[in-house]
Amino acid sequence: MSRRRVLLGAAALGALSGCGTGGSDGVGADGRVTVELWHGQSDTGRKAIQALVDEFNRTHPSIRVNAGGGGVLADAMLQKVTAALAAGSYPDIAYIFGSDLANVARSPRVVDLTKALREGPTPWSAYWKPVRDAITVNGQVRAAPALLDSLAVVCNRTLFRRAGVPLPEAGWTWDDFTEAARRLTDPGKGVFGTGWPGTGDEDTVWRLWPMLWDLGGEVVAPDGARIGFADQGVKALGTLETLARDRSVYVDPKPGGEQMYQVFLSGRMAMVPTGPWQLPDISAARVDYAVVPLPSYSGKPVTISGPDTWTVFDNGSARSRAAVEFVRWLTRPAQDVRWDSSAGSLPLTTTAAERPEWRRHSDRTPGLDVFTDALRTARVRPVHAAYPQISQALGEAIVSVLLGQDSPARALHKCAEKADAALRIPR
């Protein structure tokens, strides 16, 4: 399942404060409440969510969840929801990327879920910290968690053996990574050491945050007026510059990293930083693979998680209550494990991670435990309204370094100018 994180139309959400509610209260003549769900999933994910919706409808006779709405994939959901809010006809629940939640939550139509989740059937403390952080905006819980992941490195064992390079182990460094990528690259056979998305979108950017955090940087400085990675960014971009100079990195020119993954699946890339969603495709391609934690500069493990959300919108009290009941049911461990196993994601709670069904699934999927264990050191991007502009500026810097157009210092200087200007805009 594609896990692109394209930031679409965030600025338009600031104009939604005058919208009316969407449609009727949703109560039929038989007293049953209909809830509209826009999930944006395709293929396996669509089948998995539909199966859960069908079960909920069977076991909750007073509510009917309609999962046929939306008409777009998750990548375009923000744009779709933005237009729906502006038109005054919007769903009860929508799948919203975590990086977009801060802007979506500016709409008064987003339901506050603080009480519902903090006092819900699943203990708040059972959610992984990245989950809690990703759905909290200014101290309020503004969405329910939908999907959880983390970042690690998947290695092609066959290419490592052929090149005589030992497989990396936990505790390796970014210098180890660049040296291994150089040794594993074989231009004559079209083999690359590693790959990186090169379109400048969020898929390009989010892979750099663990490197910056590891170096002591932050996305936003404590004063809130500037970026918090001006110095650390130069060093992290220097690692990408080394990969580009050695011609050991495949820079994917298309959104979503699809070509990068195809190169890996075809046996022409030795290492790919990715998440658990890619393991089903890797297994299906019969790649002999191993998963190792991300390298570091400091020796302290750190990774990134990009939780996505079920955001609930106010279409009247009856529909809102029914929508909240559904998302609370959906995030309970029994349902969560079924969804995670099908959608290529990780358990939302430590409780779900301990369930026998998840353990059996993890045992059948080599390397999945590495992604789950990484959640203990995972961080999330800040839920900040200026994040889309920061991401765009950093994405441009990354691409300019990967393509040899700018030095790390110059690229970061340009990034800081644009991102700092965005942070100075009152919100």
Automatic annotation (TrEMBL):
<protein>
    <submittedName>
        <fullName>ABC transporter substrate-binding protein</fullName>
    </submittedName>
</protein>
<dbReference type="Pfam" id="PF01547">
    <property type="entry name" value="SBP_bac_1"/>
</dbReference>
<dbReference type="InterPro" id="IPR006059">
    <property type="entry name" value="SBP"/>
</dbReference>
<dbReference type="InterPro" id="IPR050490">
    <property type="entry name" value="Bact_solute-bd_prot1"/>
</dbReference>
